[in-house]
Predict the structure of Glutamate-1-semialdehyde 2,1-aminomutase.
Amino acid sequence: MEFTKSIQAFQEALEYIPGGVNSPVRSFRSVESDPVFIESAQGSKVRDIDGNEYIDYVGSWGPMILGHAHPDVLKALSETMQKGTSFGAPTLLETEMAKQVRKMMPSIESVRMVNSGTEATMSALRLARGYTGRDLVIKFEGCYHGHNDSFLIAAGSGALTFGTPNTPGVTTGTAHDTLTAQFNDLDSVAAHFEKHGDNIAALIIEPVTGNMGVVIPTKEFMQGVRDLCTKHGALLIFDEVMTGFRVAKGGAQSLLGIEPDLTTLGKIIGGGLPVGAYGGKKEIMDHLAPQGPVYQAGTLSGNPLAMAAGLTQLRLLDNDSMIYDDLERKAGMLEEGLKNNLRELDFPAVVNRVGSMFTLFFTKEEKVTSFADVMKCDTKVFSDYFKYSLESGIYLAPSQFEAGFVSAAHTDEDIQRTIEASYNALKKIKQKG
Ligand SMILES: Cc1ncc(COP(=O)(O)O)c(C=O)c1O
Ligand SMILES: N[C@H](C=O)CCC(=O)O
């Protein structure tokens, strides 16, 4: 494969954009390469500016559950834009979106639209603080909730990939108000509640993690977390920016059978446009301005183009009775194929998957159920695996600490090609020794 144009484009971008990218995870720095520049995408494939085509498992980091450039989403966008692109005034589309969200995720009685997942979690935390009159928040090591100061403490995703889980620029005071606990370790949560129970406003969690790779919670852990929040009067916030409408139609909360007090959303809800949302019980949401005293606003919030794309995507997901079964079947086929490869080649690694989210962890451990397990992964092996995959036309997230996404547009042939490419990549790594 030729990457000449991408290499040149990156050199130029470095001159004008910090690190050459508008979000750190897009850089291939942690896998010691230059990023490929994408020109177009269709269905399950992305194409770079050198003309190379890849089967895409990044899916714009989650939103593209129907695949790229879905004709219905494009049609909704093109029809909506003829009427104007932003009004800064209420539209019917916003209420339609709120109704659709409540239908698919009934714990969300009332929802406020924002422009990113980061805005959603930032606003949900402010609301939780305003509602409870308390200051502290519990988050989990390795979980990522966007780049708000309060959550860039022991953060996952790019912050973990690039070795800055506690980024400079966050004040000591802010960091002091964030308590960290261990995923799948209820004692670590209980200890905080015992010590600070009457000043904890909220506990925020990725109910299935994606930002340290896919780690699955035990039922006891999640129920225990719910019970501790209820007992101590703290709000339970499920950050479903990644898992919402992804792991199931009703998100991780429907899979786990646990109702959070607030939910944050993003990615899929925008159909590929910049959107976030947060919602929950009306009684809590009514503390937001103008109804209540907690202030949060946005010039472009509920933007008609974003609403049109997101609503179209959500309705397609809601109305197709087979779509989640089909995602499960294809992602299951991929999981089985990857596991067979590992067995055949006697290659130490673990595949974690929930619905259409998966991670292949390069570790000698039997299971990956905690942040400590994730930290034992061999990122050097991942780096080789990533590069061999890319060269054979498979586009993965350039970090061990991320999830891969299967979309409705992936075909069985795409999955088979991916399994073969994975086998070849593992074999090359073994031969290299
Ligand atoms: C679970 C989770 N929360 C929050 C965010 C932040 O969303 P955004 O990148 O849209 O700000 C992300 C992704 O970046 C995420 O995966
Ligand atoms: N892991 C992040 C979100 O899920 C990746 C997206 C980004 O930060 O650009």
Residues 71-319 form a domain with the Aspartate Aminotransferase; domain 2 fold (CATH 3.40.640.10). The mean pLDDT is 97.
